[in-house]
Design goal:
The chain is α+β, with helices and mostly antiparallel strands. About 40% of the residues lie in helices and about 25% in strands. The chain has a single domain, classed as Cation efflux protein, cytoplasmic domain (Alpha-Beta Plaits, 2-Layer Sandwich), CATH 3.30.70. Helix 2 packs across helix 3. The relative contact order is 0.16.
Amino acid sequence: MSSAAFMAGPPPAEEPTERVRLARTALLAALAVPGVVQGDAGGNVPRVTVDASGRLDGVLAVAQPDGRYEIQLRLVTELVPLIALAETVRGRVRSAAERAGLGASLGEIDVEFADLLTAEEILRAAEARAADETRVADETGDAP
């Protein structure tokens, strides 16, 4: 087989880095906590992680001098007690990192709240997202 034929195939899929895997694990764990609505990218200091599979709004993994990664989460939540919610999020992130084999890489976990939504605001946002998805599907012909 010639080297040209060997190289003609698609490039190998790129594995996410440990930093990206940890960021994804942390964000998914945070989003699974009751009371957390979504991640928020923020403004001045964006909390966004990007890799080949897309953009993760609401989480940033920052290398620490000791080789671990600090996780910075920026979340939109329901109107709930925030101190308790932040502690629950930290606990869930730690547990998820351990289960994923990333516990040794996890450093500090910073939880910031970007916005607090009432139940009515959450419902309106969900309806708006559904309307947007329907509009895009209609425009592209990709009906659900």
